[in-house]
Design goal:
Rossmann fold; 330 residues; elongated
Length: 330
């Protein structure tokens, strides 16, 4: 399967290269002057799946970490946003490969997958990716990929997410899990967290939407049939969190969020990670690869620490009392 993907990607490269993306075109591994003693300039391609708070923060953290470690004059970033389109991810990553960049960052699962199909030689790091085994279809997961990919995961412990819901909403009976069916990692989270919710005594109902066009209708149905909603770390939901809030808050349905960006948009609480810190950790991994010669194929996937957070205004409006141990969403 991997070989087939890369053959397809290779043929796509010739077609997509002419499309071009602004900012691409400098060849990698340049130096700051003609002197042999000049510091190496590293060229990094960043493919971000979509623009929303979480992914934006991860990209910023990544760039800040590498700029701090390498110096602003010694690293150049070609940052491209795919606007939520996986085909754009393919075009962008093929462009990075043709430019022979030193490293590629795939921010979001589809971005990581596009980089994976584009090259098996250039080091690739992922961030804001929920599950690498699912994303890369690796059946015998060992904590590292064994190929030219490593990175960081944004998955907070799902058993603790279910416990957080029970802590805040002990009298609710039914949870509706709202997610985008086009995102494999969202479905993975749904399947994983369902038994944890059931262990806490909830009846679980799934509500999937295919894209932003049917999000409102599906959210309305979920709010009519469930006592509260849970939204995993889902990029489409994150980009449309305000639309979810307009429906759920009006119907007085609480939303437990899989990450802080969604919580800001529509949630009452989340077991949160810092996407900025996640990006910084990914940048530190990039430095180890580029400067210290670390083998990306054996680098274990890293994660971030978690914090219980809540939205004070929504909790107050919905009459939800928040116990000690929670921080407010900023």
């Amino acid at each position: 399967m991997n070989k087939t993907k890369r053959i397809i990607a290779g043929s796509l490269a010739a077609l997509t290269i002419s499309l071009g993306f602004a900012g691409c075109g400098e060849s990698a591994s340049s130096s700051s002057s003609d002197s042999g003693d000049a510091a190496k300039v590293y060229n990094i391609g960043i493919c971000q799946l979509i623009q929303h708070d979480a992914l934006d923060a991860a990209t910023k953290g990544f760039k800040d970490a590498l700029t701090e470690k390498l110096g602003a004059d010694n690293v150049k970033f070609d940052e491209q946003n795919a606007q939520g389109d996986s085909q754009n991810c393919i075009t962008i990553c093929n462009q990075f490969v043709s430019s022979n960049y030193d490293l590629i960052l795939g921010n979001g699962t589809a971005a990581l997958q596009a980089a994976y199909t584009a090259t098996d030689t250039i080091p690739i790091l992922g961030t804001s990716v929920t599950n690498y085994a699912t994303a890369l279809e690796i059946s015998d997961w060992k904590g590292y990929t064994g190929i030219n990919i490593s990175g960081t995961t944004d998955l907070a412990p799902l058993d603790q997410q279910a416990e957080l819901a029970k802590e805040l909403l002990p009298d609710k009976k039914t949870v509706g899990i709202l997610y985008c069916s086009a995102e494999a990692n969202s479905k993975y989270q749904v399947d994983t967290i369902t038994p944890y919710f059931e262990k806490e005594g909830y009846t679980v109902k799934e509500y999937s939407f295919s894209d932003s066009n049917d999000l409102a209708a599906v959210t309305t149905t979920a709010c009519d049939e469930a006592d509260f909603l849970y939204i995993p770390t889902d990029n489409t939901a994150a980009a449309n969190a305000e639309n979810v809030n307009n429906i759920a808050f009006e119907k007085k349905i609480p939303v437990i969020a899989g990450e802080e960006g969604i919580c800001k948009g529509c949630g009452i609480a989340t077991l949160s990670i810092s996407y900025y810190d996640l990006g910084k950790k990914t940048g530190e991994m990039a430095y180890d690869i580029l400067v210290n010669g670390k083998d990306v194929s054996t680098m274990e996937i890293q994660n971030a620490s978690t914090t219980k957070k809540y939205d004070a205004d929504r909790c107050k409006a919905l009459g939800i009392e928040v116990p000690d141990g929670f921080e407010t969403v900023e």
